[in-house]
TrEMBL record:
Residues 445-469 are annotated as: Disordered. This is Uncharacterized protein. It comes from the Eukaryota. Keywords: Membrane, Transmembrane, Transmembrane helix. The keyword Transmembrane applies.
Length: 469
């Protein structure tokens, strides 16, 4: 019980650490943007010039009552422009995220249809295996039951092969239908989110589309014939004298075809599932960055309102009579609110830059929906770039390589567990013995392995009283 609790706590800590790392990664773009100045030299000059103009406006006399509010309004206008740019970027990111979510939903719907069509294949395999068992059982039953009429015996011999062949044909058609839905799910969004340079690769004219549909129909019937003909043909050509033996062969071959079609369907469905999961993940990432941009842009209306308030306050303060006639005092008072408006505008530029970066991140995340499974991703992109989302060919699932990798990981982890000599001394000796025989078979490393084995035997040694107990 304590071991299971410790494993659960360890898993919980790993999950929390992963979530914290994800939060840090999501905030990294905003932090990097905030550490750099988002104002150009020209904008800094304009803001500084506006504040200086407001400070020197009392020298102009009555014209100062116009120049100071105009300077504050100019600073506020820069902040309002930053709000406009930031809000447009947020809207673009949200629209892109919405488009990716729609695309991912369409792909998931097609994948669900493929799953529904494929659901009949395990039933077909079970029926084929049952028919194979009955074909083996029928000759024994007829021998025990004192052979009846020839027509009845023939019907009993033929019923299992016929059902098995029909089931194999159904499996073939089901496989073709499953592939159709899977390919549609995989290709959903390829053209919608592809770059302009790579759209031409997948573009087909009307005549080419008609030819491709005709080829698909012809291929479907060819596969149907290929599923029906081989088993009876092989059973008829094999030199087996008895009808029962031929029936067993035909039934077994048809059952094998059904199982083979099921394996092909699972292979195609695994790729489609991975592709749809990648689309859903890309849509989630795009939506996350769009929401991050919305968070960054949420403060923009407030900065614009503060800048407008400073402009209004400057227009009001120039009308108030100030004690004394000091130009320095008047310049200082007149420049306070324009300076605040300039600071608010500078803050709005940082928020605007964050919105733009998050929108660009959402765009790049959405670009992975154009990933093509049938060609190299670098070719699908139309160009190769170090920071290109298409540049990572590891996004594509290869089922056979995935199975091999899982087997390798299982072997490595098992070996790490077995290396605990104090807990599994006999198993360790067995592993080293197998390795020694394997290296002797290969004709190399016999001496090194024998020394290794002796050292390990010495390390294991006689069991201690604690181990013996």
């Amino acid at each position: 019980m304590s071991a299971s609790n410790s494993d659960k706590e360890k898993n919980t800590s790993v999950v929390l650490e992963a979530l914290a790392s994800l939060e840090r990664d999501m905030a990294m773009l905003d932090n990097v943007t905030g550490q750099r100045s988002q104002l150009s030299v020209f904008e800094i000059s304009l803001l500084a010039g506006s504040v200086v103009a407001a400070a020197t406006s009392p020298i102009l006399g009555h014209m100062g009552h116009v120049l100071a509010p105009a300077s504050a309004a100019f600073c506020a206008a820069i902040g309002i422009g930053a709000e406009y740019t930031g809000k447009v970027a947020v809207s673009d990111g949200k629209e892109i995220a919405a488009a990716t979510i729609v695309c991912a939903a369409e792909a998931e719907g097609l994948l669900a249809q493929a799953e529904r069509v494929k659901a009949v294949l395990p039933l077909c395999v079970g029926v084929g295996a049952t028919c194979a068992s009955f074909s083996l059982l029928i000759p024994a039953v007829l021998n025990v039951a004192d052979n009846g009429p020839m027509s009845m015996n023939t019907a009993l011999f033929l019923i299992s092969p016929v059902i098995s062949v029909v089931v194999a044909a159904i499996s073939s058609l089901t496989l073709q239908e499953t592939r159709s839905f899977c390919y549609r799910a995989i290709s959903t969004g390829n053209r919608r989110f592809a770059r302009s340079g790579s759209v031409g690769r997948t573009w087909l004219s009307q005549t080419e589309q008609i030819e491709r549909n005709s080829q698909r129909t012809r291929l479907r019937w060819n596969n149907f014939a290929a599923a029906v003909i081989p088993a009876p043909l092989i059973g008829a050509l094999l030199p087996v004298s008895s009808l029962g033996g031929k029936a067993i062969i035909v039934t077994a071959l048809a059952a094998m075809e059904s199982a083979f079609f099921l394996a092909q369907a699972e292979y195609t469905l695994s790729r489609a599932t991975d592709a749809v999961a990648l689309k859903a993940r890309s849509a989630s990432v795009a939506d996350t960055y769009a929401n991050q941009g919305a968070r960054s842009g949420a403060i923009l209306p407030f900065t614009s309102a503060l800048s407008a308030l400073c402009a209004a306050a400057t227009a009001a303060i120039v009308e108030f009579p100030l004690p004394g006639h000091s130009l320095v005092l008047q310049g200082g008072v007149y420049s306070i609110f324009p300076a605040f408006a300039a600071m608010f505008s500078a803050a709005a530029s940082v928020s605007k830059a964050r919105c733009e970066v998050d929108a660009e991140a959402a765009t790049q995340a959405a670009s992975t929906l154009a990933l093509e499974y049938d060609v190299s991703t670098s070719k699908a992109a139309g160009e190769r770039s170090e920071f290109d989302a298409f540049n990572n060919d590891d996004l594509i699932l290869r089922p056979f390589q995935g199975v091999i990798e899982l087997i390798r990981l299982t072997a490595v982890n098992t070996w790490k567990t077995v290396k605990l000599r104090k807990q599994y001394p006999v198993l360790v000796k067995l592993v080293y013995w197998v390795r020694k025989r394997w290296q002797r078979y290969r004709g190399s490393g016999i001496q090194d392995e024998s020394v290794h084995s002796e050292d390990d035997d010495a390390s294991v040694g006689p069991a201690s009283p604690a181990m013996a107990s």
